[in-house]
Amino acid sequence: MPDSTSNLRRRKFNFFDAIEKPTEWLIRLCGWSSIIGLAAIFLFIFKEAAPMVPRLNWVEFFTSPRWIPNPAPGNEPSFGALALLVGTFTTTFIGLMIAVPVGLGAAVYISEFAKGRVKETLKVVIELLAAIPSIVWGFIGLMVLGPIVKWVFTAEPGSAWSVVMVTLHLATADSGASQGTNLLTGGIILALMSVPLIVSLSEDALRAVPDTFREAALALGANPWDTVRRVLFPAARNGLLAACMLGMGRAIGETMAVLLATGHNNRIPLALTDPVRTMTATIAAEMGETVHGDAHYRVLFILGIVLFVITCGINVASDLIIKGVRNSNKGPK
Amino acid sequence: MNPLQPSSAGPVANPFASTAFERRKSRAAARNQWLMFSFCAVLVIPLVLILVDIFIKASPLFSLDYIWQNPVNKGKGGGLWAPLIGTFYLVVGSLLCVAPVGIFAAIYLNEYARGGWLNRTISIAVTSLAGVPSIVHALFGLGAFVLGMLPAVNRLFANPNNPESKWEAGLLTASLTIAVMNLPVIITSTREALGAVPHSFREACWNLGATRWQTIRTIVLPNSLSGILTGIILVVSRAAGETAPILFTGATYFKFIPDSGWGKLFPYSIGEPFVAMSMHLHVICTQISKMPDVMKYGSAAALIALILLVNSSAIALRVWLRGRKRW
Fold this sequence. Notes:
The structure holds two protein chains of two kinds.
Chain A: H1 15-18, H2 20-31, H3 33-49, H4 58-63, E1 67-68, E2 78-79, H5 82-113, H6 116-131, H7 134-152, H8 160-167, H9 183-207, H10 211-219, H11 224-235, H12 237-253, H13 256-261, H14 279-286, H15 295-329
Helix pairs in contact in A: 3-15, 5-9, 5-12, 6-9, 7-9, 9-12, 10-11, 12-15, 14-15
Chain B: H1 20-58, H2 64-68, E1 71-72, E2 77-78, H3 81-112, H4 117-131, H5 134-157, H6 171-195, H7 199-207, H8 212-241, H9 262-265, H10 277-286, H11 293-323
Antiparallel strand pairs in B: 1-2
């Protein structure tokens, strides 16, 4: 305060200093934004789905593959989502079968073996791979990969390849795959989409292992591969597991790529090249045709809740796993 | 004869020669290293081939006209101007919504929040939000913005006698949906950028008597500006590529916009459906029969080129910054 005894000069007024208090409150409010957003997503989806929750035949929903939302006049619609659930999990499973070994291998190579320019190039390419939009992956599945898969899995009925395909459940018909967009194509596309995530998270996990671990292994005479297998993998186990789980979460939630690349056929796949249909693709394809407020519309929101719960569960679980590894790395054991 | 080679004939065997076990081990190590390198190659080489293939098949279209002209006959001819400008406004709109909130949230998490359950809950919420599938974001946008917010806005502002003045699902709702989707991305990248500023900088500033907000404003933000910018560029690329969230929240299949004049630069009002690049690719790939393949490839190539351009600029910015970092 300026009084006569003080020779301190009054500080100049500064607008940005004057708004300190309101800004801090704004920052606190924004800090909550992610919680608010998550809660709002659940609330609004649940609000749209709620009227259907007591009316839906839940047993049929989880056990019947009969998905007939718009039946012929006079018939009851039937909402059996089993084939959609199976479609989602089979494509994800095939995607992960490819993505986990390739992703972990690439992460180990980038983090432990690659040097200098090769390492930088690989990291940049993986990053660009992650940036390609899902609709472009769908386009690649539809226009590029689909024809290749169709070409590989086609045979004269009765020929050796045809017999092999039918016996090994690679195709149902003895002439091979009926179309290029199917379970296998969708799985490969999902693998390509989830690999960048798995690589970058696994690489983080491997980098978090202290260098003393590597030095100790080398001092004991382990060669680089033994170091990776016997020291780094056990030490980074939780981080690698979390990386694979997050890759799985991404594969389950993927929409446009599987809409274009899996063939969109509502039945339970019996062979590797059968067309399938996933929950996400069903919502994307059918929401535009529904009447706002009818049963079909609300059941699609229920599918959304199922997806939301699955992916949130995966995320929270992987977060807890990573937290576990942080705590166990603290201090000497 | 090399005296270091183990030899049964020589009088002194080399005690340091590798045993059969060690040789087998090192062969396995070399083999596995090649295996892992081939995994990287499996990732990179087919992808490059596919991209080259797409660009070669799209090459007959490459010209300025392809960018500058509007699509004609449901995209069977003409260029990409209408979806391109739609994507531009979508990106700008979602950035305006998400950038301030996301940056403030990151400041809160990095500068204000102390460890504890609240901080931890927010972190889990951020990762969970990042993992929510894009189609669920689309359902949220439909429920919250199109069916919840728009009727309220129209009741307040629209002229009830003039249906033209009502806002429909359009740029505003789609931008908000994309913004919610990108919130965790921008929080994570900004938090990383803020965390990279050494703590001693803040301590020096506090010791001079500055308050927390003054420190953030004059020390922390200027020193992390480049990292924040990189994050924003990545959000741009994500916003431009997403299709599912705008499917029911404002994007439409076709929209005729003026071929010249100001209407060409400002074609969409915020309460009006629009077309976007990703949506355009989806529509011409799946919804229209007898679409010439070259138009599909052209549209895909343009979208890929746009995304790669934006992302490479982010990478270039990062490399440049790493070069001139002073601490």
